[in-house]
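Co-fold these.
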Amino acid sequence: MKLTPAQSERIAKTMIWAAALLVIGLLLFIMVYILVKGLPVLSLQFLTDIPRSMGRAGGIASTIVGTFMVTALAIAIVIPFGIGTAFYLAEYTKGNIVTRIIRFSAESLAGIPSIVYGLFGFIFFVIYLGLGWSIISGGLTLAFMILPTVIRTSEEAILAVPHIYREVSFSLSATKWQTISKVVFPSALLGIVNGVLLSVGRCVAETAAVILTAGSSYGMPTSVFSPTRTMAVHFYLLASEGISMENAYGTAALLIVLILLINVVANAFVNRFIAKGR
Amino acid sequence: MTACKHKKMTLAAVALVLALSVCLTASCSGRSDSGVVVAGSTSVQPYIELLAEEFAIQHPGNSVDVQGGGSSAGITAAETGAADLGMSSRDLKEDERLWSVVIAKDGLAVIVNPKNPVSDLSLEQVCGIYAAEITNWSQLGGTPAKIHVIAREEGSGTRSAFEDLVMGDSFRITPKAIVQNSNGAVRQIVAGDPDSVGFISLGLVDQTVKAVKLNGVAAVRENVLEGNYSLYRPFLLVAKAKPEGLSMQFIDFVLSPEGKKLMMDEGLIPLQGD
Amino acid sequence: MKKFKERLSGRIFFTLALSSISALALITVFIISQGAPLIAEVGIIKFIFGMEWAPSRGEFGIFPMIIGSVTVTLGAAVIGVPVGICCSVFLAEFAPPAMSNLFRPAIQLLAGIPSVVYGFWGLLFVVPAVRNLFGGPGLSILTGSIILGIMILPTVISISEVSILALPRQYKEGALALGMTHWQTIYAVMLPAAKSGIVAAVILGIGRAVGETMAVIMVLGNAVAVPESILDPVRTLTTNIGIEMGYASGEHQQALFATGIVLFVAIMILNSFAQYVTRRK
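Predicted complex below.
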């Protein structure tokens, strides 16, 4: 039996709609489930207390601080290098061998599993440089991990700045540096910020690379040399070892809320970037 | 001219990279202030974490940071100085020449799902299960179903203690065994799967799983204490050399009557005497 | 002064770029230098095709893990790719604007959810479901494939959608003008024309699946034997590192780095292939 075009059209349409609804349904299922179970756990006390007896009791304050410090450190390190590299690629070179090597390695390394970055960070920062399991080891490792992505997203944002801007700037006898700092950078800023924000999300969500480099001790960190446990690691340990489901849900709910916020803000930036480009 | 410029730029770049690495290395010496880092066995970790919390309350301003990782990692960390103290849930091997102190004994419980009718196994049967020679619960008097064997990962002190005590030299844990990397994870899987069997630290057995009798002896602390129950291993703290300062204070606290009581309350078997 | 600033800024950018690339080179060199000695010692053939993984006995064969990675990844592709491509077609062609404005951020959110959350969700719902429906321990290739199939969706959807949207409008208009139905146009004209982008999307999705660690640690069971059915537990290359890294020392640790090399090479090949496919257009 052969289907008429109208029949196959109907079947295809149904399947496509079904797939789309399935995906949205799954997303809602995962998020709503975690939020429903977790949000009631989030009390002021839960947020301001440090974990006790392995996380069975107490809150998650130190893991929030740990997550924040590791992420902030990673972003602070990656911003000059990532964005600087992107400007070099986009503005200073025209497809010479250096550019090609950097672009190739950035694109390839963007796909390297985080566990491999964790391996590297563990041996290099924790053991070889003797930084131990610490916020600084974790932050450096994450900086390495997100560097390729930041280079790429920033470069895309810079390249999206219409060429005419630069030409006008040059024709007004602005120098290259003036053009970059006064014209290109401001126009690309929103796009760059969007890329950086998505990397913030990746840092917050990362577990494999962090557990190997920042450690898993849940005391309140006192300096960047303290070991720490991020929220994602805390959640992993609580959930996989069945220490406290309640606290696991609470931690996961906060993680999801954070990711949600980061995404909303990143989207706001990218929408403004697009609007500005028009 | 351009060649010269390139050279200069390269020089500048090399200088920056060098400067960065110098900063990094210099910052290493900044570590270890008023804290002790303890790392290693995930079996010992929960107890040390409890002790560390209590220690920190009694010694304000000092912190004891506790990392997981596993016995072998703990021993290596103590050796390399990545941690001040290592936790091990197995005896040191001959080539691991470190300072060590036994802080307690811990029973190993073979656990099954509470719904499983099997509740008494011999050591040979446990060995047979883990060597994949016994593969169905019906061979053990249970309801016919394939046995889902759950073990710990290579490098785990619990695994190597289990291998020493149960498997001996001639048998090895089947590669088909499901591997989980903590006592808690093993317990969780067994609690959810009626056909599974696992082994965990006796102190962590709760009502979600059932500890089977071994050769007719119940897996309870008293039986370990009296020497009737044969599956137990030592919990060690190890260090590169005899610890001093805060590390030693912490060890003293762990071995104090107060520390022993804490461990006892959590299901461990502290050493006898003083 | 102006000229100095000019030269300085150029140099700073160059230095930053050079530092970035040295950082990236450092990772590669370090991982290879840590793992290569063991591969050399064991022998590359024995390492890759060895069936026994028992580091405490000095046996380092990662073939079961390679099989694990391959099967789970294939499973994820079988589950995730059709759904993903359907979704990208939906977004590009069928979704009412209001809906696609909601759908796109949702997909991005799906990409942002921590992998441990997926793993946990799998442990709660998929593992018991697989155990009750199909038997076995529930921790299995099938479970892992389902979780990874969901996790690769954002990659597959967003990249395929972009490549469908990038098609010249004439393709679609021409086909419709010839009297083809909407679906015929999509199926016979648009999807083939966007093929290279979709293939790249699938490859990058596969790369994501190969590289995922924490979610699969929780649901795969991590057994080091070659599986006999999709209901058997397996261990992938990433979970081998993830589950044992903290615990390893000496040769065992080197062996995990060697596992890392294999993973690294696999991902590099996949990514280069994806790049090649996209460029060829």
